[in-house]
Amino acid sequence: EVQLVESGGGLVQAGGSLRLSCTTSGIAFDDYAIGWFRQAPGKEREGISCISSSVGMTYYDDSVKGRFTISSDTAKNTVYLQMNSLRPEDTAVYYCAAGPAHWSGSVYFMGPDYEYAYWGQGTQVTVSS
Questions:
Q1: How many CB atoms sit inside 10 A of residue 11's CB?
Q2: How many degrees, rounded to 5, is the angle at CA 81 between CA 76 and CA 84?
Q3: Max Cα-Cα span within the chain
Q4: 92-123, pLDDT tens digit by residue?
Q5: What is the DSSP string of the chain?
Q6: Band of pLDDT at residue 65, cut at 50, 70 and 90
Q7: Based on the number of CB atoms within 10 Å of its own CB, is 118 exposed (0-12), middle (13-18) or buried (19 or more)?
Q8: CA–CA distance, 70 with 2 (Å, rounded to integer)
Q9: CA 27 to CA 40: how far, in whole Å?
Q10: Contact 109, 35 (CB under 8 A)
């Protein structure tokens, strides 16, 4: 059985930090890109970051670049999302998902959410102003 379990969400003031974890089981961790998505109330789900641990490649959406850092611990089959300088507009339910890696030549990027086969249950992040 494939499982992705997120943890680490919570309530934080603007400018604060949180670290999300996504622990996977039942998949060959190195065969997948692990992505972080978020969905705010009334908005579409958006992909914000992903990592392919086997090749050490990462991707960040412009909305989080320079503030969020994705990393992985292959021994624990876990991906982390360190979120710094949080803003009220970062408030959303954050999901991790496992899917295919995407390349355009040598450029690594994040695929659309419908290509991700396995999803976690989500964790709420609320940033107060």
A1: 12
A2: 145
A3: 41
A4: 999 999 999 888 888 888 999 999 999 999 99
A5: --EEEEE--EEEETT--EEEEEEEESS-GGGSEEEEEEE-TTS--EEEEEEETTTTEEEE-TTTTTTEEEEEETTTTEEEEEE-S--GGG-EEEEEEEE--EEETTEEEPPPGGG--EE---EEEEEE-
A6: very high
A7: middle
A8: 21
A9: 28
A10: no
